[in-house]
Design brief:
Oligomer: heterotrimer
Chains: A alpha+beta (147), B alpha/beta (370), C alpha/beta (561)
Helix content of chain A: 40-55%
Helix content of chain B: 40-55%
Shape of chain B: globular
Number of domains of chain A: 2
CATH architecture of the largest domain in chain B: 3-Layer(aba) Sandwich
Largest sheet of chain A: 4 strands, mixed
Largest interface: A-B, 38 and 52 residues
CATH architecture of the largest domain in chain A: 3-Layer(aba) Sandwich
CATH class of the largest domain in chain A: Alpha Beta
Strand content of chain B: 5-15%
Strand content of chain A: 5-15%
Number of strands of chain A: 4
Number of helices of chain B: 18
Number of strands of chain B: 9
CATH topology of the largest domain in chain B: Rossmann fold
Order of helices and strands of chain B: HHHEHHEHHEHEHEEHEEHHEHHHHHH
């Protein structure tokens, strides 16, 4: 809560805009829960419906609980041509499936549009870090490293 | 590469000695056009700005699949971009600039912030503040008015035009939106020895050496593609997701330029080329591109929201060899009318790829239909 | 335009000039009261070789507009097909289906894909039918200023809903129902009170049991029910309505105007009392349940100012279950009170636990104008060819004061008629208080009564109410009429669609006409009212009326906020 208050204060001082506020909140809280958004809405006098409508638009602002690591695999053409489907299959072997969170709440897997790594495909993002030129051993190492 | 030249704020120092109007005049004379896709003359854009409080937005929401030249510039030569922003702000009398950086590039933010901090002494001279705004994963936010809605904290739905951004833009004020590559080229104009024709092309797909290449505009398609060493003989060239596609064989001698590509019914959006090798199935590819628009459209207007979904359905059906010829007709009609009746540029360009595919590869579609 | 030269004014849209020149352009998401957004892409026209939406494109010089080329027609038809492909089929009288016919759509080549509906609270949003035209969102946000619903998600997953999908009954929604009124497709709608009860009402003539059923009709219904059967918005259908209700099988057909007269008596006397004591002024009216919910949630500091009178519907219910039930010798439980209202919030009001005066709900079933209209249609009653019926006695006798309750300013006017006689002790000669009539969102006036100047304000539309309260202006008046729906009950959330400002004005005119024709214009002259005070209630604000006709308000918090 303290951190959230700090962020709201920063917003009021116009250090950043609403979108950044929500992004920072996601960093602190993990996702935008009803309580969090309601708290922000009360403090800033912005209707909750508008806030929720906006947050739900963006793919990087989850409004439901996610795993500790959110994996976003690029499925845009360039990565698709270079084996993004295989990446998904390898992840499946770890029990990580598209659109789902693993039971231990560690991983959530989503598909995302182009993340600008077409020069080193296939690519994925885990939280805000980008991993490029993926192959079997690389993915193994990454996932193992996160455990 | 020209774009990697270090200017070291020499261009900016030069402009400070000039009058504002002179700066704009010089940019106009240089023939610099917007590098994001619509090719609008940059000098003219700056001239159209209104009075009172004004804003500049640097559009770094490079979401077009197969385009990564802006990332390349921001990674390799960020100070040139900041200098370009400073010159543009000086020329238009702007004191607040926003860099709208897409959420996927958030790892570039610290780097840019560092550069801004290092160049503080120059920015102070013209009393300029640069804000970096992170996007949160939306292709639509690459549209100029959608960026404004996003910065203002609303659902990023494209505004109706007119009024255009120079009249009513961010927070209702006159606003100029420029692409990263455009702004990065500005200091070079004043340095001297700048070649207007050198443009960045992002090449990706079935290639051995994908990457960004600087190419003189007007050279042949064949030459550009050979730079990236295709794995197999290319079959189809996609110009990003929204730009449409061309069969490589037929057009390998086409000289690549904004005009010549438009004449073929395509668009050179962001100069990102996705090269597909000879084993690729056109129906499969069309489905992948449609999936992209399914993920990224805003849901505001009917044709784009529902239509693209229906296209996806039909493509899936045809892909499983369950389609009929009537489905193909329907597909063609949908592709035509979605681009004809949609609300914003995303919608109108969302079926370009399919229109071209049906134009050049209809045989392959027919083969899969009953 | 279409090859003809047309003169235009600056700032007009293509649709405007087409209408003026008698050219028909089909529209869907466009609504005259709202800002055109160009979402549905049905109103397309061809301008200089390009297709644009006519609702939000301003005309310019040298535009060549074609409204009927093959390209235009085909594009319209395809978009319509795309819209239709995704919804559950609706009844033929909704705007959408009419439009589909007009466009000549025969077959839909796509299957529907949306699969979720949310039915909670007096209002429900049905995503099976939603076409995302955005009218409801605009009304909720811009006109009513409640901001309870918005678009959520993007692309094919876009839907209209409350934040986090919380049930509407637990959200700050006031149930004004304007969203439902503006919906072209019955996707946002009143909840059918409960299927069982609706069935009961429908089969009332068949179910022979010990139960005795009476029905009351709100003042605003008679001016609008005809519209559902093709009548012009200005027609009054009082007689036909009564006859139809009798045909459905209600034992007695009564008039809420009677309840309204009672409300006026109580409220006027309460007002006089407050003026005398100079306490809790201004007096805020309490007839509108949506406004009451709004105040209880948002402005609890106003609660002491709100009149303690129940709304006409509830007064009627209370009287019916006590006085009338006793008179005809039926147990209150066996007396079924059905009310027909132009309002969705009334459903919520009738279910409130404090609205019980005889051990059970005062009003058992509330139906909206639309619901009763559909019921009449389903029963194949030929409404337009009906003869005139008359209300039953005694709860069907009313004054002109009760009749104009449905219009904005109507409550004020009828209260003024009564208090004039109390303040001045003279008989009222000029019955019409034209100063309080009108259509502006907030209007005020001053009226001399004896030696007193009474300052009056009238606000309709929740957005205007909010403006009036938050500006602090409300403090300087003596009497403020608050109505949640623009135009008063005449534009209520349960009224027939479509409702536009033009139609509202016509309905209001119809009500004033009815008032003009009435013999009794002032509520206190109503013989039935005089009788009930003599026989049963005693006097206004007396012990019995305090118990039956007044209520208390308390601060309320939506469950989740």
């Amino acid at each position: 809560m303290k951190k959230l208050n700090l962020l709201i204060l920063k917003y009021k001082k116009e250090e950043f805009n609403l979108l950044s506020l929500l992004e920072e909140t996601v960093k602190v809280k993990g996702f935008l829960s009803f309580e969090t958004l309601n708290y922000i809405s009360k403090n800033l006098k912005i209707p909750l419906a508008k806030l929720y409508g906006m947050a739900s638009f963006y793919s990087f602002l989850p409004t439901a609980k996610t795993g500790k690591y959110v994996i976003r695999v690029c499925n845009s053409p360039s990565c698709y041509l270079n084996g993004s489907q295989e990446v998904l299959e390898i992840l499946k072997k770890f029990g990580i499936e598209v659109g789902k969170t693993t039971k231990n709440r560690k991983f959530t897997l989503e598909l995302t549009s182009c993340i600008g790594c077409c020069d080193s495909p296939p690519a994925m993002m885990i939280n805000n870090k980008v991993y490029k030129n993926l192959d079997k051993t690389k993915i193994w190492n990454i996932i193992k490293g996160l455990k | 590469m020209q774009i990697l030249r270090k200017s070291g704020w020499a261009g900016f120092e030069k402009t400070l000695k000039m009058d504002r109007k002179e700066v704009i005049k010089k940019v106009k004379e240089s023939g610099l056009n917007g590098r994001s896709g619509c090719n609008f003359p940059t000098g003219l854009k700056w001239e159209l700005m209104g009075k009172g409080v004004r804003y500049l937005i640097c559009n770094a929401n490079e979401g077009e699949p197969g385009t990564f030249k802006d990332k390349f510039i921001m990674e390799k030569n960020p100070s040139l971009l900041i200098e370009g922003i400073a010159i543009a702000s000086y020329a238009m009398g702007i004191h607040k600039t926003f860099i709208y950086l897409r959420g996927e590039y958030s790892y570039l933010k610290p780097k840019l912030e560092r550069v801004i901090k290092q160049s503080e002494e120059y920015l102070k001279k013209i009393n300029l503040k640069i804000n970096i705004n992170l996007g949160a994963g939306s292709y639509l936010c690459g549209e100029e008015t959608a960026i404004m809605e996003s910065i203002e904290g609303k659902r990023p739905v494209v505004r109706q035009k007119p009024p255009y951004p120079p009249e009513v833009g961010l927070y209702g004020k006159s606003t100029c939106v420029n692409n990263v590559e455009t702004l990065a080229n500005v200091p070079l104009i004043f340095l001297g020895g700048w070649n207007n024709k050198l443009e960045l092309y992002s090449l990706s797909g079935d290639l051995k050496k994908p990457g960004v290449h600087e190419v003189e505009g007007g050279i042949k398609l064949k030459q550009i593609v050979s730079l990236a060493k295709p794995k197999t003989e290319p079959k189809i060239i996609y110009f990003g997701a929204s730009g449409g596609c061309l069969p490589y064989k037929k057009f390998e001698n086409l000289s690549v330029g904004y005009k010549s590509i438009s004449e073929q019914g395509c668009m050179l959006n962001g100069r990102g080329l996705i090269i597909c090798g000879k084993n690729r199935e056109i129906v499969e590819l069309s489905k992948i591109f449609t999936e992209f628009f399914l993920q990224e459209n805003c849901g505001y207007c009917t044709p784009c929201r529902e239509g693209n979904f229906r296209i996806w359905e039909l493509l899936k059906k045809i892909g499983c060899r369950k389609g009929r010829k009537s489905d193909l007709n329907l597909l063609q009609k949908l592709a035509y009318y979605i681009s004809d009746t949609s609300y914003c540029a995303l919608g109108t360009s969302s079926t370009n790829h399919l229109k071209c595919a049906l134009k050049y590869f209809k045989g392959e579609f027919l083969k899969l239909c009953k | 335009m279409n090859g003809k030269r047309v003169k235009v004014k600056k700032g007009e849209t293509i649709l405007d000039i087409a209408k003026r020149n008698g050219i028909n352009i089909p529209t869907l998401c466009y609504h005259p009261d709202l800002k055109p957004e160009g979402k549905c892409r049905i109103c397309l026209v061809e301008v200089n070789g390009k297709l644009v939406t006519s609702c939000n494109t301003k005309v310019e010089e040298k535009m060549e507009i074609f409204t009927n080329t093959k390209r235009v027609l085909e594009a319209r038809r395809l978009n319509m097909e795309l819209i239709l492909s995704n919804i559950t089929y609706a009844r033929k009288d909704f705007e959408l289906i009419k439009l589909a016919k007009e466009l000549g759509i025969r077959k839909i080549r796509f299957k529907k894909h949306v699969d979720n509906s949310k039915g909670r609270g007096p209002i429900e949003i049905d995503n099976h039918r939603c076409i995302l035209c955005g009218r409801c969102v605009q009304v909720c946000q811009n006109i009513q200023g409640i901001n309870n619903i918005d678009f959520v998600n993007r692309g094919i997953f876009t839907e209209v809903t409350t934040p986090f999908n919380i049930p509407i009954k637990d959200s700050p929604c006031t149930f004004c129902g304007q969203c439902a009124l503006y919906c072209p497709e019955n996707a946002v709608r009143e909840r059918a009170f409960s299927e069982k009860l609706i069935k009961y009402v429908e089969n009332i003539s068949i179910v022979k049991d010990s139960k005795f059923s009476i029905v009351q009709t709100a003042p605003a219904i008679r001016a609008s029910l005809g519209e559902m059967f093709g009548a012009e918005p200005r027609t009054l259908v009082t007689g036909k309505m009564v006859a139809a209700l009798r045909k459905i099988g209600f034992d007695k057909v009564f008039d809420t105007d009677f309840g309204a007269d009672l409300t006026i008596m109580e409220e006027a006397n309460e007002f006089v009392e407050r003026i005398k004591k100079n306490k809790n002024l201004p007096l805020l009216t309490s007839c509108c349940p949506s406004w009451i919910r709004f105040a209880e949630e948002t402005y609890p500091f106003l609660l002491k100012n709100i009149s303690t009178c129940k709304s006409p519907q509830q007064m009627f219910g209370a009287i019916a279950k006590t006085y009338y039930a006793k008179k005809i010798g039926v147990k209150p439980k066996d007396l079924i009170v059905v009310s027909i209202m132009p309002c969705i919030a009334k459903k919520f009001e009738a279910e409130k636990p404090e609205m019980e005066s005889a051990g059970c709900n005062d009003v058992d079933i509330v139906l909206t104008t639309r619901e009763i209209g559909r019921m009449i249609e389903r029963k194949k009653i030929n409404f337009s060819k009906f003869g005139d019926g008359e209300f039953d006695e005694p709860l069907g006798i009313s004054s002109g004061g009760g009749a104009i309750f449905g219009a904005t300013g109507g409550v004020t006017e009828s209260v003024l008629r009564v208090i004039y006689e109390i303040f001045t002790d003279k008989k009222l000669k000029k019955v019409n208080f034209k100063q309080v009539r009108g259509f502006e969102g907030i209007r005020d006036t001053e009226i001399e009564m004896g030696n007193k100047n009474i300052k009056i304000a009238i606000a309709h539309g929740l957005g205007n109410i909010r403006k009036l309260i938050e500006s602090g202006e409300w403090k300087k008046y003596h009497f403020i009429e608050m109505m949640a729906c623009p135009g008063g009950c005449i534009g209520g959330g349960g009224q027939p669609r479509p409702t536009t400002w033009e139609i509202r004005k016509k309905r209001i005119a119809a009500l004033y006409e009815q008032d003009k024709k009435m013999k009794i214009r002032v509520a206190s002259h109503n013989p039935a009212i005089k009788k009930i005070y003599k026989e049963f209630l005693g006097k206004p604000l007396g012990k019995k009326s305090e118990k039956l006709l007044h209520t208390k308000y308390k601060k309320r918090k939506p469950k989740y906020f």
